[in-house]
Amino acid sequence: MHQAGWEQNEPRVLIVPVGIAGRAGSVPPPELLRDLVGELASSLCLDYEIGESVELPARLLASEREQVEAHRALATLIARYRAQPYFRFLFITEEDLYVRGLNFVFGLAAPGGRAAIVSNARFGEEPAGSRVLENGVPLERLTKVALHEIGHTLLLRHSDDPRSVMKYHNSLAELDASGGGFTQTDIRGILYAYPGLEGRVR
Ligand SMILES: [Zn+2]
User: Fold this and answer.
1) Are 107 and 31 in contact (CB under 8 A)?
2) Which terminus of the chain, N or C, has fewer Cβ atoms within 10 Å?
3) Residue ranges of the chain whose pLDDT lies below 50
4) What CATH number matches the domain at 10-125+134-190, 3.10.20.310, 3.40.390.10, 3.30.950.10, 3.10.290.10?
């Protein structure tokens, strides 16, 4: 029996728009995901596909706080997709995410696992100091968080380097201040764990 895996092929990433069943505006629009792919490809040259949208059951929405608990959402999605031979899965939702002990999270990855989830819910808000958003800033934020979470799936930990997209961020101000891509240290870390990505990480 030969099981086809990503090692034999171009590493493929499936990007899946995710929402909560019966909630309007819960699933991100396809054009946003196409723009995201364009941005991600400049740091991680992989074969991206945008999958069919998927709806999570309404019970995953914590109705008292109008948020989705990120670990439960990610575990549900992983269970659903685990048989599919993609290198990585990136789930994107318009729902706000939280984990126990934190008011919200921008995203969550299974470290060293194959999947991450990112919320687009907070990226359009005005940064602290009432700076007026320019067009494209929310996409830049989404890209940073998506790259950060994919970095965790590639076994990267948080970086102290402000130029690194792996810098920990807990607010939009911190997110805006962090770098938009991987540093040479990040790239060495990824290639140490995944030498097959040589030439694909910038
Ligand atoms: Zn992180």
Assistant:
1) no
2) N
3) 1-6, 130
4) 3.40.390.10
